[in-house]
Each structure stands twice: as structure tokens, then as C-alpha cells.
Amino acid sequence: ITSGIDLTRRMSGTQCFGFTTPLITTASGGKMGKTADGAVWLNSDTSLGDSYSKSPYDYWQFWRNTDDADVAKFFKLFTDLPLDEIDSIEKLTGADINKAKIRLANEVTTMLHGIKAAKEAEATANDTFEKGLNSEGLPTIMIERSKLERTGILQASVLTGLALSNGEGRRHIKAGALKINGIKITDHEYKLSQNDLKDGSIKISIGKKRHAILKLHD
Fold it and tell me: What is the pTM of this model?
């Protein structure tokens, strides 16, 4: 920041100012979005790479997964709801706080991606987690049919953006978190095959809340 101020002064002779804000911390004391995996990317365009973007669904899911203790705080920071309404949200517990998280996700996603994307993300989450369906609203990556059986599970996890590296993919497998079509994968050398196809696509998951679809094309 200071280098930029100095460069501006030297090149244009004008005065400018640097602007900083405190880092946002969560209830656990951690810095929000400190790691690449937890970063809140506003960009949904994957032209910069999956590691530097979040689909509207992933963005919505990020806010839906807010810790109970952070819900009211995030409403104050990231929405324009009236403070008296947020005060009532602060008193919620149990199932009601989960409803508040859905509203938080909808409010914040609407501001960035529009109400249509927010409602589609909510419907996708509902279909995926409550009804167990393979929703078309999940992030989808296309792969050539001829390359399917040469694609390993680690490569697939990185390709879909569920893991940032093969090493992270291995850690997810070791933790029992990586699944194909709901089936846990235990071998990090596992290769995808035609047997993994379900209605022409493969659902890859990490844990219960992160999912992506691989679809084939000729």
C-alpha cells in the first residue's frame, strides 16, 4: 500500500491515501477466509482457475455453513437488514438458527449473484442434502469421454475444485471424506471408469456438504 502511494506521488505528483480495515474474525478466533480453501471468492468465472472462484452454489453454501455464534454478526456485516430484526435473530437457537443461516446465505448471494441464483442454490442444497438427489445445480465440470479411464480420483478432485492439490486430495481420502456417488474411496490411486457413471455423470463429494459433478462429452 505504501509503495503504491509513493509510486502515485512520483508518477503523477498527486496525493493519494491507503485504506485498510481490520481482518474479520470468526467466533473461534480464526481469521475469516485465511486459507485459499476457505476464501470467500466473489468471482464465479473459472477463467482464473477453480482455486480463485466460487460458483453461486458454493458461495451460498459457504454462508449456509456459518457457525451459530457468527450468524448475527455476519448479518450486521454483510447484509442491509434492519438492526432490530438482526437483534431478534441473535436470540434464535436450534432449528430456528438453521433457518436464519439459510436466510443469511440467500441475502448475501442475492446481493452478489441475484435472487434467481440464490433460490437455485437453496433448491440445489435442499435436493442434495435433504432428498439425496443428484441435482443439476451442483458445480459441473466437463471431461472428454476418451479421458475418463485415464483420470485418477486425485486428478478428478482437483479438476472439480474440491481439492487444491493431489496432496489435499490424499488427506481427504485418508480422512474418509472423499466419495464417488456416495461411496467412500480408500485408494488414492483409484481410476475413474464407466462403472462410475450414473445417468452419464459422476458425483464427487468431500464430506457431506461439498459436491461437484463430472459430465462426459465427446
Answer: 0.59
